[in-house]
């Protein structure tokens, strides 16, 4: 179990131990303790007739491997404990043991039993002092509470698993996107990656369309000799049926299905098969297929990976498809009509960028091609490129951002392709990507002296299509508000309510920094920053005119809380965060007042307190003057204190305890100390201090 889960289990265990007045132990499904009991005396060790409680718990877990609800287990005559499973995905992961207790009025008989059969009166008395006596109704109530505890822990495990799965999916997608960004990537490379990651799959392959009715298997792992070069027709066998119907198929328990004869004739006997058609427009370009000779059903385990790999194969095949098209003007215009249709299918910015990059490279040969996307929410640039080094990409992003800010007042619909000399000496043709008078980015072609008119026309058409693609992804899918609207609101605030504008800007600063302190809480920081502008100036009718569901929902809920029509505890985390920030500012940065607000999510309040405490400390530290390294005046007072403790050999946790600050704050101080002293780690600090003959600063 990872540390965060351990802390979570410990908090719930402590809460329910106090709530039920019972000792509670949590074990894995083999009976091993997950968390040690906080009590000095372990009642489970005392009442166990086995060697110890671990043996007792292991025996119970072995005897009850499949229980759904809490049960009472008699460890001694009349002495019972509650045993309750904790499930994750329909499998028992842990057990809760709560006890010990006897049903009233049987305490006297239990005492007699213990006195008679135990060799130690002291032990007998100790057990009786720890055993609780309850009525039947009270015992049933405690069983309900332990069941609720199990449900809470089970839900927590599910959420953590979902988050872990999401992060794994994002990482997987990023890996695939990075792969296809390489112009030399092949379908076989994608098949190799899939085959290594999915051990339940025995074979995979790709069949390419070679005529209106024929397909040929071009790549296959590991049965290359048996399958590569095999030709089949639409409608023939399992693969041919998918080609005929244009539908994704997963077959289970197909070992004796006659349609498997295609594989049987080649010495392959699959029990399950999948097949994905690679479609472009109305045409099938190929088939991605695979299967298992061991497992009768594999869809659940590999479905997502199959879809991702199929989409990447589709990307590569479409790319090859375009490259094979004739280069006449008429045919390329037809190509771009289809590109406009393709733009409607993309669901993220990176996919649009990759598509624009590849299409630009198909139009003309250049030293490098880059596609830049302008993120106006935080004024940053996302770039994908073929032919540029990482250093040059970073330089170029800074250069184009600087020029954008200088010319931000230009009429965007008048922007034309621009020739620019890069900081490293290459000539670049920059083609703006616009839609509805909004600038979304640029297609940038490197080291082009002469470009044909028809090529430039096609690139401009491609940029227009890209503008529509970015618009659909950013505006329609994410429902972000127009930046021009916000600019207008700022001007109105400056005129109507300058005091509120000061608070808004202060709230922006706090929200921006606080966003790094709540990674596990689902809070829309960007939306909250926009809502801050609207809280005290605009009514609901104005808000509805923005036609932004996210902002409208936060605004309405905040107003309900403000009017005491909705309890703060029932409000969303977005609204609770907004209440925290606005109350903090309105009360003159008074963290004590904010801490008294009832109904705020515990983790949210804790993270906010930590952030504000560090913010105040950082503001104090930044006000310290700096002079000379030898006098230690390049470090703030607090950094000197941290450095002194480092030289005393203390670790981050010990430093935090000594200075009464959080571990996160210690890490920030250490980073600043490393930077100011031009070192990379603690050992280099020691070397530098003693090399220069400097005495450590005094606390």
What does this structure look like?
By secondary structure, the chain is an alpha+beta fold. It contains 27 helices and 16 strands. The strands form three sheets. It has a six-stranded antiparallel beta sheet, with helices on both faces. Strands 1, 2, 3, 4 and 5 form a five-stranded mixed beta sheet that branches. Strands 13-12-16-15-14 form a five-stranded antiparallel beta sheet, with helices on both faces. The longest helix is centred in the first third of the chain and has 46 residues, at 136-181. It starts with a helix and ends in an 8-residue tail after the last helix. Mean pLDDT is 78; it is low at 325-329, 409-413, 476-481 and 622-632.
Name a few traits of the molecule:
699 residues; 6-stranded antiparallel beta sheet; 5-stranded mixed beta sheet; 27 helices; 16 strands
Number of helices: 27
Mean residue pLDDT: 78
Kindly state the percentage of residues in helix: 40-55%
What coarse outline follows from CA principal-axis ratios? globular
Regions with little confidence, pLDDT below 50 for 5+ residues? 325-329, 409-413, 476-481, 622-632
Order of strands, widest sheet = 8-7-6-11-10-9
Q: Got a strand count?
A: 16
Largest sheet: 6 strands, antiparallel
Q: Describe the oligomeric state of these chains in a short phrase.
A: single chain
Structural class: alpha+beta
Distance between the first and last residues' Cα: 40 Å
């Amino acid at each position: 179990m990872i540390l965060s889960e351990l802390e979570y289990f410990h908090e719930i265990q402590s809460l329910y131990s106090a709530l039920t007045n019972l000792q509670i132990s949590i074990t894995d499904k083999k009976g091993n303790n997950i968390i040690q009991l906080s009590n000095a005396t372990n009642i489970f060790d005392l009442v166990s007739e086995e060697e110890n409680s671990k043996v007792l718990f292991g025996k119970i877990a072995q005897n009850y491997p499949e229980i759904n609800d809490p049960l009472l287990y008699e460890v001694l005559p009349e002495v019972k404990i509650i045993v309750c499973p904790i499930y994750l995905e329909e499998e028992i992961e842990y057990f809760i043991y709560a006890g010990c207790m006897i049903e009233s009025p049987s305490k006297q008989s239990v005492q007699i039993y213990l006195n008679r059969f135990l060799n130690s009166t002291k032990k007998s008395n100790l057990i009786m002092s720890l055993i609780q006596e309850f009525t039947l109704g009270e015992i049933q109530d405690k069983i309900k509470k332990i069941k609720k505890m199990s449900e809470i822990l089970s839900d927590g495990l599910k959420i953590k698993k979902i988050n872990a799965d999401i992060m794994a999916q994002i990482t997987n997608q990023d890996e695939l996107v990075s792969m296809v960004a390489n112009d030399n990537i092949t379908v076989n490379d994608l098949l190799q990656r899939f085959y290594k990651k999915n051990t339940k799959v025995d074979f995979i392959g790709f069949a390419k369309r070679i005529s209106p009715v024929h397909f040929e298997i071009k790549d296959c792992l590991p049965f290359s000799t048996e399958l590569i070069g095999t030709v089949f027709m639409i409608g023939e066998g399992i693969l041919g049926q998918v080609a005929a119907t244009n539908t994704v198929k997963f077959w289970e328990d197909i070992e004796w299905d006659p349609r498997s004869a295609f594989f049987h004739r080649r010495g392959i006997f699959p029990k399950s098969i999948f097949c994905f058609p690679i479609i472009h427009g109305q045409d099938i370009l190929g088939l991605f297929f695979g299967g298992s000779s061991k497992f009768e059903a594999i869809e659940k385990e590999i479905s997502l990976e199959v879809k991702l790999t199929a989409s990447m194969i589709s990307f590569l095949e479409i790319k090859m498809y375009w490259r094979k098209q004739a280069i006449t003007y008429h045919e390329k215009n037809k190509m771009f009509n289809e590109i406009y249709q393709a733009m409607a299918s993309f669901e993220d910015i990176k996919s649009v960028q990759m598509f624009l990059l590849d299409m630009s490279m198909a139009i003309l040969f250049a030293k490098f091609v880059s596609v830049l996307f302008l993120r106006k929410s935080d004024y940053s640039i996302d770039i994908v490129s073929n032919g540029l080094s990482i250093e040059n990409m970073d330089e170029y992003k800074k250069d184009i951002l600087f020029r954008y800010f200088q010319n931000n007042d230009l009429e965007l619909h008048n922007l034309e392709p621009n020739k620019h000399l890069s900081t490293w000496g290459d000539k670049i043709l920059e083609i703006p990507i616009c839609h509805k008078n909004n600038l979304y980015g640029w297609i940038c072609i490197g080291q082009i002296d002469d470009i044909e008119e028809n090529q430039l026309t096609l690139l401009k058409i491609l940029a227009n299509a890209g503008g529509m693609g970015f618009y659909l992804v950013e505006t329609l899918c994410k429902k972000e508000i127009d930046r021009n609207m916000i600019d207008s609101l700022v001007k109105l605030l400056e005129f109507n309510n300058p005091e509120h504008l000061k608070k808004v800007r202060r709230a922006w600063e706090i929200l921006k920094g606080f966003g790094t302190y709540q990674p596990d809480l689902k809070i829309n920081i960007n939306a909250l920053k926009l809502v801050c502008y609207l809280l005290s100036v605009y009514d609901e009718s104005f808000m509805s005119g923005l036609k932004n569901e996210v902002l409208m929902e936060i605004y309405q809920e905040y107003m309900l809380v403000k009017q005491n029509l909705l309890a703060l505890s029932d409000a969303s985390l977005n609204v609770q965060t907004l209440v925290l920030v606005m109350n903090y500012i309105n009360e003159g940065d008074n963290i004590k007042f904010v801490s008294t607000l009832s109904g705020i999510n515990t983790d949210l309040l804790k993270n906010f307190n930590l952030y504000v405490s560090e913010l105040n400390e950082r503001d104090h530290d930044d006000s310290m003057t700096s002079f000379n390294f030898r006098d230690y005046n390049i470090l703030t007072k607090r950094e000197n204190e941290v450095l002194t403790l480092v030289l005393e050999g203390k670790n981050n946790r010990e430093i935090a305890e000594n200075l009464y600050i959080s571990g996160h704050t210690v890490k920030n101080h250490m980073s600043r100390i490393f930077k100011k002293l031009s070192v990379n780690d603690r050992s280099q600090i020691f070397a530098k201090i003693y090399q220069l003959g400097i005495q450590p600063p005094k606390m």
